[in-house]
Amino acid sequence: MEGNTTFPVFPTNSSFTNRSCSRDNAFKTVVLPVLYSCLFLVGMSLNCLAAWVLFHIPSRSYFIIYLKNIVVADVIMTLTFPFKVLSDSNMATTNLRVFVCRVSSVLFYLTMYISILFFGLISIDRCRKTLKPFKGLNANRLTWRKLLSGAIWTFLLILCLPNVILTCKTPTSPDFKCSDLKTENGLYWHEVVNDVCQVIFWVNLVTVLICYTLITKELYKSYSRTKSHSSEGTVPLAPRGETIRRPQETKRKKMNANVFLILAVFFVCFVPFHFARVPYTMSQTRPVLFDCTLKLFFFQLKESTLFLSSLNAVLDPLIYFFLCRSFRATLFKTLRLPSGTCSWATGTRDSSDCA
């Protein structure tokens, strides 16, 4: 996995080269630490509340099971932010930087790809609910989804554990890179993990696109049918022949729009990083094709899009709120708010997409 785990060795033929190739600029040492500090405070508050609410809701649907896994991943990811802040701002001790290389960065990427996998499963579930809304659930199917969730965590933990174990060298200088701490086998395994993670992302991207293409087609058909039916049931107002639209029509449109929050969060958080990763990786593996300015640019592009991936920890609670009536009901009860609060935003006060 990338990020803090691999750093290239830049040429050091002159002081000018050192200055132009160095990554220790204001963007890395000031801007990113400030952004991640804010993200940590907001993300920890939202995800602790979301976790408390979700784990008070029985796991009676695939959607709830997947959301519980995502909130656990988000909490773990958020806990890695302070270590990144200290490391990037050059305030970390050598031992803490070693911890970032061995553990913190690995956990960050582990939770990112767990979220990506569950976004794919949620997209399949939303597609199923849209195409076959009356298909029921049973205890066996719920048990299989729980086992699948456990298998995903187990697979990625086993995949990432060697990155921790094989990052075991003692740093020989204060200016070490994370790759300096890896054994030869560790560097090889690091490449294997990168390839597997790329496959995970691209497979889930295709899955999300297919699912939401089918959802869009079905919602368009539903909207067309509703429009034709509502045109027969409208009420004339004046001689001009103006009509009143049924309020259920507006609510239904809002509900349908809310479903696309999952697609929006996926594309905002995960797609930019994986596209920026391609030229960044090339700048590391084919250094002769890139001068220091380009290397620095691709590094900053990668770090910027990595921050967007971190935003996932803050944006996910929007999915819980807008797509799950059980979550809203438990949240309002906890905060002692009326059950109809924010019904204007969710599009309905009674329907649920959690089943």
Automatic annotation (TrEMBL):
SUPFAM superfamilies: Family A G protein-coupled receptor-like (SSF81321). The chain crosses the membrane at residues 34-55, 62-83, 103-124, 144-166, 199-215, 255-275, 304-323. It is found in: Cell membrane. Its main location: membrane. GO terms for cellular component: plasma membrane. It comes from the Eukaryota. It is a multi-pass membrane protein. Keywords: Cell membrane, G-protein coupled receptor, Membrane, Receptor, Transducer, Transmembrane, Transmembrane helix. Residues 46-320 form the G-protein coupled receptors family 1 profile domain. One of its GO terms (molecular function) is G protein-coupled purinergic nucleotide receptor activity. PANTHER family: P2Y PURINOCEPTOR 12, P2Y PURINOCEPTOR-RELATED G-PROTEIN COUPLED RECEPTOR. This is P2Y purinoceptor 12 isoform X1.
